[in-house]
Amino acid sequence: MKKICTILVALVLIGSVSAQAQLKFGVKAGANFSKLSSSNPQDQFENLTAWHGGLMLELKLPILGIEVDAIYTQNGTKFDAGTAIEELKNTYIAVPVLVKLYILKVLNIHAGPQFSFLTSSKLGDFDYKNQLASSDLQIVFGAGVDLGRLHGSLRYNLGVKDINANALNPNTLKNNAVMLSVGIWLKK
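Now predict its structure.
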């Protein structure tokens, strides 16, 4: 009898949560302000302004949400190569998995991991992809707003994985970026 009551209570809770859950999806785009960090204090990297765009999906409960994005994004850095300022542009497919806490009905704070997969890397005209790891891991912290179908967010991506794959270079390199996005919820 105890097991039957436990199962019934679990089913009622699952049913009430799924009745309150809302599945939303949309598109987003925006600007990235990224810079590599290095374990070598001599490395002087500057911000690179780039872009991102992709899809967003959210399972929203009354005060919590889980958002998963699929974003085509460009990160990198600028640095002084002695004769000129060089740009390293790395392109990734990024998949952030974020837990959102809604403070008000329209405002949220969110955090979670972002898994990224390198698609290309260019240092000027040179293909730099073989010098970098094929994947990256970042921790994302941010805030967002949803005004009807309009979505906006500001995130900081903190690199936690060394992306340097060059065995001759012992210094660690990590991606860091600020992402400013606007989007539209297509299904709300």
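Helices lie at 2-20.
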